[in-house]
Amino acid sequence: MAKTYDYDLFVIGAGSGGVRAARLAAMGGARVAVAESYRVGGTCVIRGCVPKKFMVYASEFSHGFDVAEGFGWTVGERSFDWAKFVERKDVEIARLSGIYTTNLEKAGAELFHARAVLKDAHTVELVGKDRTVTADKILIAVGGKVWLPSPDAVPGIEHVITSDDAFHLPHLPKSILIAGGGYIAVEFAGIFAGLGVDTTLVYRGPNILRGFDEDVRTHLADEMEKHGIKIVLGAQHQRIEKTDKGLVNHLTNGLVCTTEQVMFAVGRRAATEGLGLETAGVEVEADGTVKVDRFSQTTAANIWAVGDVTGRMNLTPVAIREAVAFNQTVFHDTPTAFDHDNVPTAVFSQPPIGTVGLTEAEARKKCGKVDIYVTRFRPMKQAFIGGQERMLMKLIVECATDRVVGVHIVGPDAPEMIQMAAIAVKMGATKAQWDQTCALHPTAAEEIVTLREKYVPHELAAAE
Ligand code: NDP
Known about the structure:
Bound molecules: NADPH dihydro-nicotinamide-adenine-dinucleotide phosphate
Oligomer: single chain
CATH superfamily of the largest domain: FAD/NAD(P)-binding domain
Distance between the termini: 74 Å
Helix content: 25-40%
Mean pLDDT: 96
Number of strands: 21
Strand content: 15-25%
CATH architecture of the largest domain: 3-Layer(bba) Sandwich
Number of helices: 13
């Protein structure tokens, strides 16, 4: 007789991936339980995308006031009430978290507010609840958590804050130094600078946002500097000293600077520690991410993993799509692998980035000969007020097929534009088809269908 379990599916982690998988399985008739040790909603809703976007909105106003004045408005005294903002943000986050909980319950999934630890491949202990349950299938969707260097590597690291803390600061600092050059570092640099905080970004590499297109990296760094952010490249922390004047940052390039706050945004790690994975036969990579195949199945036959814990592409919509594919594979007998190619992504820096497909460097490697189209211009709102901010748009075309294989935009509304451009890239539209699309005037987006002149990088022009 087949062994019976308490549940058909036990999901560990109620973030974007876990909630979607649990709801779909429960709505399909499976007996589902979910364990969440913190608040329902996960990184995205509680301490990531959503509250970050509210902070971006809040900080963008300072720039908006300048633009308004350029258009003839008189803007009175400007002041920002951080405490009021935080209170409103928390109300909205609580509302969204509540919706996630309600949706789980409506779907018929049972929610445990507890940390879950695997005891074997079918058994889960609910820590602090004095309860152990069994499940036929288990989904690991525990996400990631902030990583910090050890106090040996950076003495004084205990004085820094992370993005988790940035959402709940008791007051806005007068000055901040942000360490890191990835998504979180550049997004928070824009947020703090926009809110009037004297902001310095320190990154160890030659340019921020490693992995993004080179023109995008340079353009954004220039624009961030126009927004008053100081960027220090090729340096990292040696140590941090707490004094009565503030936190003294000693950097490897010899620079010493004192700021009221220091924020480290030097990456996140899969939250797999203490989960009991080894007892269940689930193997992890050296960086702690769970090893999965393209169907999100782990090395244990009845256990799957989706989202940031697998480290494939740490983006909310990707976790959701991996969860949908998991549901199709496991509960609908239709093996489905989410296609991680041409996933659009945005960095909510100021100005923001929207990007989909290959960078120029990747395309040159993968596609051989490519044509590049680039434009840099002042959007009409900026030109009107005599502002100096410029927008970048770049298309990368594979010569052999004429397909547009990469689109990169830096400037206002870039994330909104790239979502639409991603459809064309995913469909494999050719440059000729982009050109056949009539422009919509007057917009900044129209530039993307009116790019005619091929761009030849200096080094290639010299070689020809
Ligand atoms: P990232 O991996 O994007 O960036 C980490 C940064 O820290 C890099 O610049 C890295 O440098 C630097 N770094 C790593 N180790 C050290 C070290 N020991 N000392 C100094 N610097 C170091 O991580 P984030 O934490 O910014 O974001 C995590 C992930 O979350 C992102 O990759 C993204 O997938 C997701 N995310 C998405 C957002 C969005 O969609 N808008 C927003 C925020 C996060 P180097 O490049 O040299 O390795």
